[in-house]
Every structure is written in structure tokens, then in C-alpha cells.
Amino acid sequence: MRDVKHEKVPGRAGSDTSRRAPRLRLRVTPDAARQLRSGHPWLFADSIREQNREGAPGELAVVYDRNDRFLAIGLFDPDSPIRLRVLHAGKPMILDKAWWRERFRSAITRRSGLFDEQTTGHRWINGESDGWPGLVLDRYDTTLVLKLYTGAWLPRIGETVDLIREELKPGQIVLRLSRNIQEAARGILGKEDGAFLFGDKRDAVVTFLETGLRFEADVVHGQKTGFFFDQRENRRMVGSLARGRDALNAFSFTGGFSVYAAHGGAKSVVDLDISAHALSGARRNFDLNNSNSTVVACRHETIQGDAFEWLDENRSKKFDLVILDPPSLARRETERSGAIQAYGKLAQSGIAHLRPGGVLVAASCSAHVSAEEFFGAIRLAAKKSGAQFTELKTTGHAPDHPATFPEAQYLKCIYLEMAGQTVSPCR
């Protein structure tokens, strides 16, 4: 990354950096100052009391308190309600090339020892929680996917890619963009979502290993960066619970949980999803593991349909393992209450499909619903069912998806076993 001191402003792409504007300076409300001192990585537009001039996307801005003391420095985004993404807070710091490289290496080192050659797909950088606000970097074997959630990174994309190439030496790098910055990317970079920033541009679909199992990911058009790495630990747990069971994977997407269940010895697995495209991916993921005898031995069925409706309309169908992993049911705070009720209703429907001794696996990726609220809704549904349940486990974020501030804490999962003759193999 370019050398940047607090007293200097990085030049815009294509500008004469010898003529630099004064450093962008922000003064904030007392409440925002407290938040920044406590380590929160966002500064919202309505918390800015003074600004010495207009700022450009990706420019470094320094935040001061009302006594003109340094608070933080971060990436400015004039087009976002999150006006500043904090890079550093505390004492003043020079953000030069060595600083950027050390920040990158720290994120990579944090994953040291987590994965071996049997897992070639995982997250390298998890945004704010790794000190790279609004930026995600995922690995799919030799292909890396760089996902941006703020336009502040767009003017810095060249030097960011150079750093990634120098440190990780990938075969390809694919750019993914959140919807809110796609137009800006066309103007600043001349690139679309899914563009190859480096490497072979022929294949949008790549394959990788997870715990020795093979999966595909559409890194150009797929959801997020192409696959949901955050559920890896829960997929492994499902595999440990699956032996001898008939499993239902509702909201199955491309069948990640199902492949693990089959590998764990499930007798049968049903993938249920509204997307025909996702179900085709699930069938391909099973085919990718046709050298695995336990996967081949498992009967695999796909059903296209609305999972909420199917669960309600087909209660006579029973399973020993029911997995409920819906998309976010609360994308904003105003949807939180309705989402909690929906999670409870969904759990009731899932429980209705369980045989005695069966296990319910219920997950939520809604950041606006807390773990306490979600687990409470599922436990209440279990109580209302009239059956006896043992709570086997609750889980949160995978180790390569750290969550260091409240808004980043979205993932939670709970495992409940219904009373019956079957004894859970994970005990």
C-alpha cells in the first residue's frame, strides 16, 4: 500500500500526488468518541460534528475529539451512512507500506494451524474483525475471491491486489461487490461484479476441499463469494450426528450439510430448497464425492419448493435429523421481532418432522437477532411441542470468521435431541 502519514492525504487515482489537499479532519460527538475509544470500527455520518472539507472515497480521514485529541484514522466513504471505517484507534500511527503489510500478515497468521491440505477453502480476512473494514478475502484452493462492502476500497484496489499477490501467490483473484457499490465500481474501476483481477478468466466455477470432501463454488455469480464457509464447524458436527439416520436439509442451498451427513453415514438425505439452480449444485457436489463409499451409499433426493410451505404441508414425512438453516429473516432492526417469531414457528415445523430420538439442528444468520433471542425461540418451540429434548450444543462463529464487535455477531446454531431410543453419537 502507498506510504501515508497522518499529515498527508493519498492522491486520487490518476491525480498529481505532489499537490495534496490538507488532511481530512473530522470531529465527532462525545458518544461517538466513546464508541471509538472502546474499539468500535464504524463512525456514522450523523456522529460527525465538524469536517474541514469534502472527502473522496477511500481517503484517509483522522478523527479528533472536541479537545482536538487524536481518536482514530480510517477509510472515508462519502456515499455510505457508515462514513468512516476505522483502521487504527488509540495513539497516532503512520500507515505506511510496512504497516499495511503487517496488518495483512496478522490476519493470515491468525489462521495458522486451522487448516491442512484436506481443507483448501476458508476465509483469509473477515472484514472489520481482522482490521480490514468492509473487505473479505476467501480462498478456494488457488483462487481467491475479494469481496468489497464499501466503495472506500475501490481507489485502493490496485495496491490491495498487489499485496495479496505478493503475500499469498494465488492463481486467480476474483472481485465481488456488494450491490450498493457496483455502480461506483464501474465508474472508478471500469469493472463489474465477478471480474477477474488477475489470472485465468475461463472458469467461473472452481472446486476445493473441506475436511477431505470436494465442493464446487461459483465464484463469479454465486451468493456471497460462492460458498458459506462460516458453517464449516456445524457441517462437521452434522456429520458426526448422521450415522444411520434419515436426514432432511431444509434451505439446503448446494447441499453442504447433506454431503457431510452422507459422509457421516446417513442412510438418506433430502435436500429441500426453492432454487432449482441450488439443487443442481447439490447434485453436483454429491457427484464430486463419488469416490467416497459412504457418500455413494447414502440415498440422495432433492425437492424444489418453498421450505416453509413444504414443512407445514408434509408433516407425515419423518426424519431422524432435521437441519434448518434459512437465509437471514431480519435484514434490518425493524424486522427483528417478526424474525424471532418466524424462527420459533420454523422450529415447530421442523420438530413435527422428527422421529423419537431425532436431532433438530437450527441455525440463524440474522445479525439483528441475538443468540439469546434465537436460542430462546427454539427452546420455547421445543417446550411447546410436548416432547422431551436434550440440548446437545450451541455454537457461534467459526474460527476463521472472528466477530469482534456486536454488529459482526450474526451466526448461531443449536442442537436439540428428542427423547427416544436413539443415543446421540456425539455424546
Written description of the protein model:
The chain has 427 residues and is an alpha/beta fold. The chain has 3 domains: 1-95, PUA domain (Archaeosine Trna-guanine Transglycosylase, Chain: A, domain 4, Roll); 97-206, RNA methyltransferase domain (HRMD) like (Transcription Regulator spoIIAA, 2-Layer Sandwich), CATH 3.30.750.80; 228-418, 3-Layer(aba) Sandwich (Rossmann fold). 27% of the residues lie in helices and 28% in strands. It is built from 11 helices and 20 strands. β5 (70-76) and β6 form a beta hairpin. α5 runs parallel beside α6 (256-263) and α10 (336-351) runs parallel beside α11 (371-384). The termini are far apart.
Main sheet summary: 7 strands, mixed
CATH class of the largest domain: Alpha Beta
Could you say how many structural domains there are in total?
3
Cα(first) to Cα(last) distance is 50 Å
| Low-pLDDT windows of residues | 2-18, 422-427
How is the CATH topology of the largest domain named?
Rossmann fold
Please estimate the helix content.
25-40%
The CATH homologous superfamily of the largest domain corresponds to Vaccinia Virus protein VP39
Strand order of the largest sheet: 16-15-14-17-18-20-19
DSSP E strands, number = 20
Mean pLDDT: 93
Strand percentage: 25-35%
